[in-house]
Amino acid sequence: EVQLVESGGGLVQPGGSLRLSCGASGFSFRDYWMNWVRQAPGKGLEWVASIQQDESQEFYVDSVKGRFTTSRDNAKNSLYLQMNSLRVEDTAVYYCARGYYLIRGLAFDIWGQGTMVTVSS
Amino acid sequence: EIVMTQSPATLSVSPGDRATLSCRASQSVGSSLAWYQQRPGQAPRLLIYGASTRATTIPARFSGSGSGTEFTLTISSLQSEDFAVYSCQQYYHSSTFGQGTKLEIK
């Protein structure tokens, strides 16, 4: 079964750090772009970051540039999101999603169940 | 940034009827448009990509159309499991989502 499982969410104070992990199974992880998408409570989806198969390219939404870093370990079938200098507005469910590479850009064809990150004092 | 605007915010439709959801881009995205379904408490599910291509295992009652800046998701003969939130995503330049349309039972 193709599956993504996130972990690492929790409550953190503003200015703090958190590292999310996403474990993949059921497919050849090293062959896919991988992504993070978040959803604030009661809000729509927001793409956060993408990383190429060999880590040669990373992309981020402007609001997290310089604060968040995504990485991957293809040997461990794992994706990571290091989040520093967290803000209240980063509060959201964070989803790991597999990238479905199309002629121009990525759709997201497999999603994890999400992990909640709450930034609050 | 390309802004995606979905309408209406909430759509009330009876089971068995047809639902038509709209998504507008602030500039042309060609056919680089995807639709997702999200049931309460669940992760999103890819329905449509390339504006009109159904993803694997998606029933034929889901169809997408449009190009440029105007897109439509049509669900014919609504089933109980179709009542959910639907979001569009452009992937022409970076990636942005619409705010979602909640499809509720009338």
Dominant shape of chain A: globular
Low-confidence stretches of chain A: none
Per DSSP, the total helix count of chain B is: 0
Largest sheet of chain B: 7 strands, mixed
Order of helical and strand elements of chain B: EEEEEEEEEEE
Q: How much is the average pLDDT of chain A?
A: 97
Average pLDDT figure of chain B: 97
Apparent shape of chain B: globular
Characterise this structure.
The complex is a heterodimer of chains A (121) and B (106). Chain A is 0% helix and 54% strand. With 121 residues, chain A is mainly beta. In chain A, strand 5 and strand 6 (58-60) form a beta hairpin. The N and C termini of chain A lie far apart (39 Å). The mean pLDDT of chain A is 97. Chain B is globular. In chain B, strands 2, 4, 5, 6, 9, 10 and 11 form a 7-stranded mixed β-sheet that branches. Chain B has a 4-stranded antiparallel β-sheet with strand order 1-3-8-7, with no helix packed on it. In chain B, a hairpin with a 5-residue loop joins strand 9 and strand 10. Chain B contains no helices and 11 strands. Classes of the chains: A mainly beta (121), B mainly beta (106). The A-B interface holds A 37, 43-47, 50, 59, 61-62, 95, 100, 102-109, 111-114 and B 1, 30, 32, 34, 36, 42-46, 49-50, 55-56, 87, 89, 91-100.
